[in-house]
Specification:
mainly alpha; 85% helix; Multidrug-efflux transporter; MATE_fam; xenobiotic transmembrane transporter activity
Length: 471
C-alpha cells in the first residue's frame, strides 16, 4: 500500500504519489520538531540563561547547517531523482557518492572555523547589550556553537544520505534515519544536560544539549549506512558511489549551491534580527522569539514534508519527460500546503499563551506576553509560507534553485530586515515591529513566487528542464 515505484510516480495518480511520499516525510518532520522542542523543554527546566543562550546561538547554528548540509542535500536529491526518472541508476549512484564527499569536505572546513570563531561571533551578536544582561547567556551561546561545530561531519553525512533515499523515492528510509536522530537526542538530552550520578555522568547544561544533537546525527548516519548495506534501495550503492569526480561535484553544487546560499542569506538576516530583538527587548524578547520559532517549526511541518516529496515527484517526472505532470504536482502541493496551514494558523491564533507555556512552563511576565503577541502575528502568514515552500520546491526540482535564492534575498533582506530595523530603531515601535516584519515578508514572497512560477511555466521552463534531465 505504501510502496512507490518509479512508474507510480511518473505514470500513476499524482495525488497518491505526492501523499504517499510525503506521509513519512511529514512524520519525519514532526520527529525533527520534537527533537527541537525536547531541547527547549529540558533547557527551560535547567535555567533561563540556557534558553536565552541557545536562542542567541540558534540562527548561527542553522547558518552552519546551511553551509554544510543544504547544498549537498538539495543537489543530491535533485540529481538522484532526475536520474532515476531517466533510468540512469549509475548516475544516481555517482550523485550520492559525490554528495557525501562534498558534505564531509565542507563540514571539516566550516566546523574548524565555527569552533575557533564562536566567542568572536557571540561578542558581535551581543554588541548592543541592554542593561542587566546576564553574562551566562553569552557563555551558553559560545558553548553550544562550539559543540555543534565539532559535530558538523556527522550532521552533513546523515542529511546527504537521507537526500539520496528521498530522491530514490524511498521516504520511509528517510523517516527511519530521522527517528534514530530524535530517539538518540531525546534519550541523551536529560542525561547530559542535568547529569546522571548513578552512571557518573556530570551535568553539562547547554554543552550537553549540543552533544546530544551531534550524537543523534551520528546515529542517523550509522542507521542509514546499515540500511544501504542490507540492500535497501537496491541499486543506490555500487562502485560509482565510491568514485565521485570533480565534474559531478560541479554539477551537484550548481544545483545545490544556490539553495545553500539561500539558507545562508536567510540565516544571516535572522542573526541580525536576533540582535534587533535583543536590543529592543533583552532576554524577554529573545525568549519570546525563540518560542515563536519553535512553534512555527511545528506549523511548517506539513509544508516542508510536502516540499521534499514534491521535489522528488517533479524531478522524476522531468527525468521521464513529463513536464505537464511536473507542473500539476507543484500546484497540487501549493493547494494542500496553503489549506492545511490556514487551519493550523487559525488554531494557533486562539491559544498562543497555552502553546508558549506548554513549551516553557517557567515563561511569565513580559516574556510570556511577547510570546503570545508573536504567535498571533505569525499565524496570519501561515498559508503564504506553505505556498512559498511548495513553489520553491517546484523551481528547485527544475534546477532553478537560483530563483528560490533570489526570492529569499527579497524576502529577508529587502522586506523583513528593513521593516524590523526601521520599526525598532527609527520609529520606536518596539519588538512588535520584528514580529510583523516576519509575517509581511512571508506573504509578499508567496504572492511573488506564485506569479513568477505561472509566468515561467507558460514560457516553457518545465519543457526545457525535462530536456536537460532526460539528457
Amino acid at each position: 500500500m505504501f510502496e512507490l515505484s518509479t512508474e507510480d510516480i511518473t505514470e500513476g495518480s499524482l495525488l497518491r504519489a505526492l501523499l504517499l511520499l510525503a506521509a513519512p516525510l511529514l512524520v519525519q518532520q514532526l520527529a525533527l520538531v520534537a527533537n527541537q522542542v525536547a531541547d527547549l523543554v529540558f533547557l527551560g527546566r535547567f535555567s533561563g540563561a540556557a534558553v536565552a543562550g541557545v536562542s542567541l546561538a540558534f540562527p548561527a547554528v542553522v547558518l552552519l547547517f546551511a553551509v554544510v548540509a543544504v547544498g549537498p542535500f538539495v543537489g543530491t536529491q535533485v540529481l538522484v531523482s532526475q536520474r532515476v526518472g531517466a533510468d540512469d541508476r549509475a548516475g544516481a549512484r555517482r550523485a550520492l557518492g559525490t554528495g557525501l564527499a562534498t558534505a564531509v569536505a565542507l563540514a571539516l572546513a566550516v566546523g574548524a572555523v565555527a569552533y575557533l570563531a564562536a566567542p568572536a561571533l557571540v561578542d558581535l551578536l551581543t554588541a548592543v547589550r541592554p542593561a542587566g544582561t546576564d553574562p551566562a547567556v553569552e557563555r551558553a551561546a559560545v558553548d553550544y556553537l562550539r559543540v555543534v561545530g565539532l559535530g558538523l561531519v556527522a550532521i552533513g553525512l546523515g542529511d546527504t544520505l537521507e537526500a539520496g533515499f528521498v530522491g530514490w523515492g524511498d521516504s520511509r528510509a528517510s523517516l527511519y534515519i530521522n527517528l534514530a536522530t530524535v530517539g538518540t537526542n531525546v534519550v541523551l538530552d536529560p542525561l547530559l544536560i542535568f547529569g546522571f550520578a548513578p552512571l557518573g555522568v556530570p551535568s553539562l547544561g547547554v554543552t550537553g544539549a549540543g552533544l546530544a544533537l551531534v550524537c543523534g546525527s551520528l546515529a542517523a548516519f550509522v542507521l542509514g549506512a546499515a540500511m544501504l548495506a542490507a540492500g535497501r534501495a537496491k541499486g543506490l550503492v555500487g562502485s560509482e558511489t565510491f568514485a565521485p569526480d570533480l565534474e559531478e561535484v560541479r554539477e551537484l553544487l550548481d544545483i545545490g549551491g544556490p539553495s545553500a546560499a539561500q539558507q545562508v542569506a536567510r540565516q544571516s538576516v535572522r542573526l541580525v534580527v536576533v540582535v534587533v530583538v535583543f536590543a529592543a527587548a533583552g532576554g524577554a524578547g529573545l525568549a519570546a522569539y525563540f518560542v515563536g520559532a519553535r512553534v512555527a517549526a511545528v506549523a511548517f511541518v506539513p509544508a516542508i514534508g510536502l516540499q521534499q516529496a514534491a521535489q522528488s515527484v517533479v524531478g522524476q517526472n522531468l527525468g521521464a519527460e513529463r513536464p505537464d505532470r511536473a507542473g500539476r504536482t507543484t500546484w497540487l502541493g501549493v493547494g494542500i500546503a496553503a489549506g492545511g496551514l490556514a487551519v493550523v494558523g487559525a488554531a494557533q491564533w486562539f491559544v498562543p499563551g497555552d502553546l508558549a507555556v506548554l513549551l516553557v512552563p517557567e515563561l511569565s511576565g513580559e516574556a510570556l506576553a511577547l510570546a503570545e503577541q508573536y504567535l498571533r502575528i505569525l499565524a496570519y502568514g501561515y498559508p503564504a509560507i506553505g505556498a512559498a515552500y511548495l513553489l520553491e520546491g517546484g523551481f528547485n526540482a527544475a534546477r532553478r534553485t537560483r530563483t528560490s535564492f533570489v526570492a529569499t534575498l527579497c524576502q529577508f533582506w529587502a522586506i523583513r530586515l528593513p521593516i524590523a530595523a526601521a520599526g525598532v530603531f527609527l520609529l520606536g515601535y518596539g519588538v512588535q515591529s520584528v514580529f510583523w516584519a516576519v509575517t509581511i515578508s512571508n506573504v509578499v514572497v508567496a504572492v511573488g513566487l506564485a506569479v513568477y512560477y505561472h509566468r515561467e511555466v507558460d514560457r516553457g521552463m518545465l519543457g526545457r528542464a525535462a530536456e536537460t534531465a532526460s539528457g
